[in-house]
Amino acid sequence: MSSAATRATGPDHLWSVDEHLEDILTTVRPLEPIELNLLDAQGCVLVEDVTVPVSLPPFDNSSMDGYAVRVADVAGASEEFPAVLDVVGDVAAGQADLLHVGPGQAARIMTGAPLPPGAETVVPVEWTDGGLGEGPVTGMRARSLAPEGAEGHVHVYRSAEARAHVRAKGSDVKAGDRALEAGTVLGPPQIGLLAAIGRGTVRVRPRPRVVVVSTGSELVQPDEQLGSGQIYDSNSFALTAAARDAGAIAYRVGAVADDAETLRSTIEDQLVRADLMVTTGGVSVGAYDVVKEALSHVGDEDEEGAGVEFRKLAMQPGKPQGFGSIGPDHTPLLALPGNPVSSYVSFELFVRPAIRALMGLDDVHRPTTRATLTAGSALTSPKGRRQFLRGTYADGVVTPVGGAGSHLVAALAHADALIVVPEDVESVEPGTEVEVVLLG
After folding, report:
1. I want to staple 371 with a disulfide (CB 3.0 to 4.6 A). Which of 234, 398, 409, 435 is the partner?
2. Which residues contact 251 (CB under 8 A, 6 or more apart)?
3. pTM for this one?
């Protein structure tokens, strides 16, 4: 899967953030569309426009519990001189055989029930005596409790204009309208609309399946006892959660020990359920950086064009990165650094856009803005590196959280933004306007 950007560089090339991201996004292609049931399609992206086959609502219906009447029959009605109408029966939601409302007549009608023939408007039950002859009522009694309410007479104490409290046919959407357009992400309201217009399935790009593998013999799972020199595996949890937040179906693989064959076997076993593989740790230059050892020559045995390239990026944190493909289907693989902050920042910059690209979204990036830096002293940044500092953003102002160390998990947990310091800037004074990537 070697791209033009990859072929144009040598092994000692120091990649920019933009070059690395461009290489990823020109390689990763949206997943093929499939037909899914509505609830299975939640979070997916539509690949075609959806046209309304039937108007919503499909018929004129009442927006209130009350009485369906003719306008002339309640004209001038008041509490002193109420209109007295014959009640001819009930009209309930879902009722097929409708009553006809003639002059001097009324039909009890429930919210959502079709407006019966002959009726021109609806008077709320609170404007009537409910057919009980005891003055204005506050609500409509159930027919089982007051069967006499559906017959006899009703006193109406207020007039009503034509089509008052009537939801008109097609007032929501009309047959032939475009309900949703291609590219829409299906959330609960969109799924509700699809169901309302009678669509039980929809054609979408599926949510990508992302497998996250952390590496390191020093890693211990939460709730287990720490031994000497051991730490808890936090990266796999953070990245799996981040992948789900990005819209993916994510699977976490517990920490794999520092053994190249074990790691390679684990990754190959996971390919069956992966549209994208993400590893964390083992991509630097140490003697136990097993991801590089396990994957550097994977292309020698796989189909032509497969392989993972390990790179140095002009950024901090996150200098060591890996990108390529593995397996017979050329499944994309992004290898991230092992330090928690480096890993998470790398995910936001590179993995999240790859996930969004697999989904078929046009805009794959986090939103950015400009903000005024507030800090106790100037921020320093290494020359030639694009630095990403954690911060909190509010009302056009951004404040750094914690230091620049790539191990500061607590500071990361309190950040909702990344402060971007460009490659050619070595110091940023308080009050300076800076670029901010919004994470929340």
Report:
1. 398
2. 209, 210, 211, 212, 240, 270, 273, 274
3. 0.84
Cα gap 362→438, rounded to integer Å: 18
User: How far is the CA of 387 from the CAs of 30, 170, 342, 352, 380, in angstroms?
Assistant: 30, 54, 11, 18, 9
Do the beta carbons of residue 156 and residue 83 sit within 8 Å? Answer: yes
Q: Which residue reads 């947990």 in tokens?
A: 413
- 3 state DSSP class of 268: helix
Q: Are 211 and 183 in contact (CB under 8 A)?
A: no
Q: What is the C-alpha end-to-end distance of the chain, expressed in Å?
A: 33
Token pair listed for 232: 């808890």
Residue 126 one-letter amino acid: E
Q: Which residue has the tokens 């190959």?
A: 268
Classify the C-alpha dihedral 407-408-410-415 as positive or negative: negative
Note whether 267 and 326 are within 8 A (CB).
Answer: yes
Cα separation, 387 vs 378, whole angstroms: 14
Find the radius of gyration of the CA atoms of the chain: 32
Check if the beta carbon of residue 250 is closer than 8 Å to that of residue 210.
Answer: yes
Determine the residue type at 296: S
Partner residues linked to 405 by β-bridges: none
Distance CA 139, CA 279 (A): 62
| Local confidence pLDDT in tens for the 440 residues of the chain | 444 444 455 667 899 999 999 999 999 999 999 999 999 999 999 999 999 999 999 999 999 999 999 999 999 999 999 999 999 999 988 887 888 999 999 999 999 999 999 999 999 999 999 888 888 888 877 666 655 555 689 999 999 999 999 999 999 999 999 999 999 999 999 999 999 999 999 999 999 999 999 888 888 888 888 888 888 888 999 999 999 999 999 999 988 887 888 888 898 899 999 999 999 987 765 545 678 778 765 544 445 556 889 999 999 999 999 999 998 999 999 999 989 999 999 999 999 999 999 999 989 999 999 999 999 999 999 999 999 999 999 999 999 997 655 456 788 889 999 999 999 999 999 999 999 999 97
Determine contact, residues 420/429, Cβ cutoff 8 Å: no
